Amino acid sequence: MVAPIIHLRGDYLLVATIGFNIIFIQVLENDIFGLTGGPNGLFGIDVVKFFGYELSSQTHMYYMAFLLLGITLLIIRNLDRSKFGRAMFYIHKDEIAAQSMGINIRYFKLYAFILGAGIAGAAGSMFSIQYSAVSPEAFNVTQSIMFFTIVLVGGSASLPGVLIGTFIMFVLPEMFREFETARYLVFGIAMILTMILRPRGIWPVKFGNIPSFLKKEVK
């Protein structure tokens, strides 16, 4: 299913990704092969057992989620400094220029899809274990739009930017929950101002800039 959208880019890739999300939700709700539980989802998911010890408390869930976050950040940080990270950066900037430098665009895009699916699968497993249930409602289009918003607000291809975007879109709304619906108006205005004043995000990526020691001083 990934092969047809590998050659897409920009808005077309965004629309295709949302389209696949809608198809995925329909598959879950129709209970294909009796595996997904239909619209109600799956309940009674067992907890994690480690050498016979059940990790079922909220404290255990917190540390497991924190460990998963740390591993994910470590993987992404190492990838940013690797051949893969450099290739993806240049593909993101200009596919034609990247291909002219000998970068296999199809290979690296497929690699990115597989890596993203693996990380998303790990996060989904953590989600289902924490709530002992999972349903199609947890993967609706609104959630996908929220994830895209995190990247746009924080900064595309920027690890600190994604963390900042996650804090703004998930943590801050919980801190101002007592304001109910008014908080969405405030955050909507904040997002618009961010896109106008910081079109590349709050913390844009600086990868690919010429190092300072290579720049000649202008007298």
Backbone structural class: mainly alpha
How much is the average pLDDT? 78
Q: Could you tell me the number of beta strands?
A: 4
Helix content: 55-70%
Tell me, briefly, the overall form: globular
Secondary-structure element order, N to C? HEEEHHHHEHHH
Low-confidence segments, given as residue ranges, are: none
**CA-atom Rg in angstroms:** 20 Å
Largest sheet features: 2 strands, antiparallel
Distance between the termini: 56 Å
Strand content: under 5%
Number of helical segments? 8
Order of adjacent strands in the largest pleated sheet: 1-4
Protein architecture, described:
The chain is mainly alpha-helical and 219 residues long. It contains eight helices and four strands. Helix 6 (141-154) crosses helix 7 (159-175).
What would the keywords be for this entry?
219 residues, two-stranded antiparallel sheet, 4 strands, globular
